[in-house]
Amino acid sequence: xEPGSSPLTTHVLDTASGLPAQGLxxxxxxxxxxxxxxxxxxxxxxxxxxxxPGLLPPGQMKAGTYKLSFDTEGYWQKRGQESFYPYVEVxxxxxxxxxxxxxxxxxxxxxxxxxxxx
Length: 118
Prior knowledge:
With 118 residues, this protein is mainly beta. The protein has 1 helix and 8 strands, in the order βββββαβββ. 19% of the residues are buried. InterPro entries: Hydroxyisourate_hydrolase, Transthyretin/HIU_hydrolase, Transthyretin/HIU_hydrolase_d, Transthyretin/HIU_hydrolase_sf, Transthyretin_CS.
């Protein structure tokens, strides 16, 4: 990982338009208290390229279970589009906090796909 770069990033693509999903609100949380409570770490919004690069400052990543919550209903409503999923939650586990993690989301009004990117 490059010095000063965020260890966790996301990129959202609107597959219905073929463009980046600009202006999509999201939250990053971490599971705490022996798996009983989600702690919100950051609220953010995707930029003009559908990216949200600075989710965690360098040095703040620790092993554990994380959740990215995307406000897909709000995104589609701003575009006058009906949608099926009001939100998308991607839950993932980080076991090595020295690695970089990229969590892309491919989004349409009726479906979504995610994977561990590089």
